[in-house]
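Researcher: I've got a protein sequence and the SMILES for flavin-adenine dinucleotide. Could you write out the 3D structure of the bound complex as structure tokens? I'd like something to compare against our soaking experiments later this week.
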Amino acid sequence: MKTAPDQYQDIRDAVRALCVQFPDEYHRRIDAQEAYPEEFVAALTKAGWLAALIPAEYGGSGLGLAEASVIMEEINRSGGNAGACHGQMYNMGTLLRHGSKAQKDLYLPKIASGEWRLQSMGVTEPTTGTDTTKIKTTAVLKGDRYVVNGQKVWISRVQHSDWMILLARTTPIAEVKKKSEGMSIFLVDLRQAERSGMTVRPIANMVNHETNELFFENLEIPAENLIGQEGMGFKYILDGLNAERTLIAAECIGDGYWFIDRVRKYASERVVFGRPIAQNQGVQFPIAETYIEVEAANLMRFRACELFDAHQPCGAEANMAKYLAAKASWEAGNACLQFHGGFGFAREYDVERKFRETRLYQVAPVSTNMILSYVAEHLLGLPRSF
Ligand SMILES: Cc1cc2nc3c(=O)[nH]c(=O)nc-3n(C[C@H](O)[C@H](O)[C@H](O)COP(=O)(O)OP(=O)(O)OC[C@H]3O[C@@H](n4cnc5c(N)ncnc54)[C@H](O)[C@@H]3O)c2cc1C
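Model: Sure. Here is the predicted complex with flavin-adenine dinucleotide in place.
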């Protein structure tokens, strides 16, 4: 399959060399067992790939978003699922941008080495969903501790992380000028929290994605675990979204190329009516169409990276890259499944697994409608709808 050459071939080759040690059978077995790809994540961590965005002074490799996105893309392109570990790559950005010097000195080197995993981010709540400023989880300062009460849902990788960044309301919404004010973010020691005040209830779901409901009952967090200023947490979370969206776009692009490569090979070999099914234009065209869409998403991904790495505003490009890539990988998955016929449903072909995995990105970490709403309001100047 021809794809445009880029300047990241060295990174691609190195990540591929690692991923090749974890073939389809490995990911298939982990999926069937609903297990965590511990060995795969450990190997990526040991090789330093998940510390790509951590500056060298803290033990990371200080690479840009473009390089980091290529790492995520290659993981998914190899048949793996970066969703098991992408939090380790981007959650630390919040700490890097807004944490105190003491926090950065303490946490970042340990995250870079993999000694600590900061894989979890607790934002979504069951009763408020996408309307984040209405969250009901509260954190009240009592002496040198914040006391947290409330509930979260869909919080991922809690059982495979040491720390979580938690968003909670520290000032009631009725007492702030803007609804986006009065929320704060905290570093939560997950193992300690499980022993006193936090209950974790795993959610069985469509993909092998470890995600949970969390219940907080008087969970105490040391005041020094507040990141940045009290009341500014929502803004800090928003600051991290452009990187997250661009990296997720790259994962979708990796999925897209995986689907296209698989269907290209299968359709060229599968003979029905005396010729390869790929000889029929009814089969060729949907594959060609998704290839065009993945390539277009790829360009938008690199545009977002270029702006981000140049410290320029990139909200529009990051959102559009995520939208295009999630749509393209879904369409590529659909074509791949369709032209595998019945075999698309057989686990041993891995298509159904990747199909389920890539579908998630239309909903999380941001749903497609929220991106359309962003574009409508912020880029097209259409009236605000909520
Ligand atoms: C596997 C998985 C892992 C996740 N991991 C995490 C995590 O680690 N941390 C975390 O905090 N969250 C996580 N999430 C939550 C995820 O970010 C949310 O599910 C997502 O943001 C949508 O929120 P919701 O489910 O409450 O949907 P709702 O807000 O209830 O929305 C439902 C649907 O309605 C649409 N909708 C809602 N309002 C509007 C509107 N005004 N206009 C148009 N459409 C609208 C939405 O786009 C969506 O498609 C995860 C979710 C899943 C499924």
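Model: Residues 121-124, 129-130, 154-156, 205, 209, 211, 360, 363-367, 369-370, 373, 386 surround flavin-adenine dinucleotide (CB under 6 Å). The longest helix spans residues 233-269.
Researcher: Great, I'll pass this along to the crystallography team.
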